[in-house]
Design brief:
By secondary structure, this protein is mostly helical. The chain is 75% helix and 3% strand. It is built from ten helices and three strands; from the N terminus they run βααβαααβααααα. Strands 2-1-3 form a three-stranded mixed beta sheet. The chain starts with 9 loop residues before the first strand and ends with a helix.
């Protein structure tokens, strides 16, 4: 660690670098988005818990997705909101690396849960007669538990690799939270090992799962085209379209951010993509599933009906 350098105990989050009036306006807009995200994901999770008709593997994974979205947004957005109205935009070293750890853990878990959801749809449409056997509750718990454990072990590897680096200045993170690529730019040591592990993780967590999802939906598409009933085809397309929307939004923006050369998009563009992940994606997921899913809307009507007649 070379001894002429002093250890950085806190960082400054530069944020979006806008005028004071614009930042106050964004504070209120982002606060509304964040509150909506919490309420919408909480509603999805609550409906799945309360309505027995939603106690199926598909909605079991959807409940995990809602938990991830709430946790993911809550890890990054509150600090960003505080910085929009606060002149002191510092964050201590330990909270910063913990924010990075949780960010990576939740992001990887969402990737794997989306793959589990695509596998569930593949079995439901391509092997409907064996669905209850293949997608047993034991299999669902194993898939979900493995996604959580493996993702956070992978995030722990990144955390250990960050902690081995000296941070001796500068101490300004050009981001609104401790995003891993922005943090690594401040290390006063060789970060090639970190960059290699990040790239390897992206191949394994982004490209690998995306290929599995595309293979699953290719099989699903062929199976749907073989369905004789027009109503059956419409229902099958409706069941899968919501999940495809979420997969496209999530994997597309992640690949653009982490698997393209840094020179191809400036730091401000990286901030916007991270903002999409932290704020808009957790808000869009329940919106897509609730507006495009008749079963969720039916569950909401049943719960509201019970509340009115209690």
């Amino acid at each position: 660690m070379g001894s002429n350098h002093s250890w950085v105990s806190e960082f400054i989050l530069v944020g979006l670098q806008l005028s004071a009036e614009m930042e106050v306006s964004l504070f209120w807009i982002f606060s509304l988005f964040y509150i909506f995200s919490l309420l919408a994901n909480g509603m999805i999770f609550g409906l799945i818990c309360l309505d027995p008709r939603l106690h199926t593997p598909m909605y079991f994974f959807l409940s995990h997705l809602a938990i991830i979205d709430v946790s993911y947004a809550s890890n990054n957005v509150p600090k960003m909101l505080a910085n929009l109205v606060n002149q002191k935009r510092t964050i201590s070293f330990v909270p910063c690396v913990m924010q990075t750890f949780l960010y990576l853990g939740f992001a990887a878990t969402e990737c794997l849960i989306l793959v589990a959801m695509s596998y569930d749809r593949f079995v439901a449409i391509c092997h409907p007669l064996q669905y209850t056997v293949i997608m047993s509750w034991r299999v669902c718990f194993v898939l979900a538990g493995t996604s959580w454990v493996f993702s956070f072990l992978l995030a722990l590897v990144h955390l250990i690799l960050i902690l081995r680096l000296p941070f001796c200045g500068p101490h300004e993170i050009n981001h609104f939270f401790c995003e891993i690529l922005s943090v690594l730019k401040l290390a006063c040591a060789d970060t090639r090992l970190n960059q290699m592990v990040i790239f390897g993780t992206c191949v394994f967590i982004l490209l690998g799962p995306l290929c599995l999802v595309l293979v699953s939906y290719s099989c699903i598409l062929f199976a749907i085209l073989r369905i004789q009933s027009r109503e059956g085809r419409r229902k099958a397309f409706s069941t899968c379209s919501s999940h495809l929307c979420v997969v496209g939004l999530y994997f597309g923006s992640a690949i653009v951010m982490y698997m393209t050369p840094n020179s191809s998009h400036p730091e401000e563009q990286q901030k916007i993509l991270s903002l999409f992940y932290s704020l808009f994606n957790p808000m869009l997921n329940p919106l897509i599933y609730s507006l495009r899913n008749a079963e969720v809307k039916g569950a909401l009507r049943r719960v509201l009906y019970k509340q009115r007649h209690m």
